[in-house]
């Protein structure tokens, strides 16, 4: 299972243990336990992760991956396990940008290959700055190198929780999106098993438990 561990609170590397942790990792571990299988994780960039599962280099990918029609043409997707749309993040105290509609002519950042990048590039007269990780995008936002960052709402919650007072979300969530587990297109049997495990975990309240644990700051 491939991931991109730069997306707290969904996947990140625990500095103390150097182990992968986060909402997605615990969810995948719970699925593996349900199915009595062992998971070997590969940690790489977001674009290579998607390319790897599309070419069946990996069996599956979990990395806060938004289900899109374009991606569904290249890989299978589980049932959605969480809903998350895009939101705009600016520096605290910024009154100029009140939401997505105010980004015309601005310098806007997002992580390469993400839905945020797709939405940023749609803006009229935008100066789009792609980043390898949202860590770097938010750092440049704090330092005044960019005007705004477009990011998944739940990822924004995680970063703002770690950096109170420096950044703020503005406007409403402006896309309707769902995260799913991507699966190699030849592995329909694995997809069926993952979906069955997801349903069982949802019914048992495990998804809600993970939301409380990782997203309680929401």
Task: Please describe the structure with a list of short key phrases separated by commas or semicolons.
alpha+beta, three-stranded antiparallel β-sheet, five-stranded mixed β-sheet, 8 helices, 218 residues, single chain, 36% helix, 21% strand
Describe the structure.
The structure is a single chain. This protein is α+β, with helices and mostly antiparallel strands and 218 residues long. The chain has helices at 23-35, 46-54, 69-72, 115-121, 134-142, 153-162, 188-203, 206-215, and strands spanning 2-3, 6-7, 11-13, 20-21, 42-43, 60-61, 76-77, 82-83, 86-91, 107-111, 127-131, 148-152, 167-170, 178-179, 182-183. It is built from eight helices and 15 strands. The chain has a five-stranded mixed beta sheet with strand order 11-10-12-9-13, sandwiched between helices. A three-stranded antiparallel beta sheet has the order 2-3-4, with helices on one face. A three-stranded antiparallel beta sheet has the order 6-15-7. Strand 2 (6-7) and strand 3 form a beta hairpin. The relative contact order is 0.21. The mean pLDDT is 94.
């Amino acid at each position: 299972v491939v991931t991109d561990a730069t997306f707290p609170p969904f996947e990140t590397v625990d500095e103390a243990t150097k182990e992968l942790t986060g909402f997605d990792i615990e969810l995948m571990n719970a699925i593996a336990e349900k199915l009595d299988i062992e998971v070997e994780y590969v940690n790489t960039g977001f674009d290579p992760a998607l390319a790897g599962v599309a070419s069946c280099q990996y069996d599956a990918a979990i990395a806060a991956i938004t289900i899109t029609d374009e991606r569904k043409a290249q890989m299978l997707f589980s049932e959605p396990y969480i809903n998350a749309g895009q939101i705009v993040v600016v520096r605290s105290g910024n009154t100029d940008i009140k939401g997505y509609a105010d980004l015309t002519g601005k310098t806007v950042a997002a992580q390469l290959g993400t839905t945020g990048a797709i939405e940023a590039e749609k803006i009229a007269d935008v100066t789009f700055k792609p980043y390898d990780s949202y860590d770097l995008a938010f750092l440049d936002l704090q330092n005044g190198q960019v005007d705004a960052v477009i990011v998944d709402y739940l990822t924004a919650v995680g970063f703002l929780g770690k950096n109170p007072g420096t950044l703020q979300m503005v406007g409403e969530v402006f896309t309707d999106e769902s995260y799913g587990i991507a699966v190699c297109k030849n592995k329909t049997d694995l997809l069926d098993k993952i979906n069955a495990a997801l349903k069982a975990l949802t019914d048992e309240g495990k998804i809600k438990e993970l939301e409380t644990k990782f997203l309680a700051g929401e």
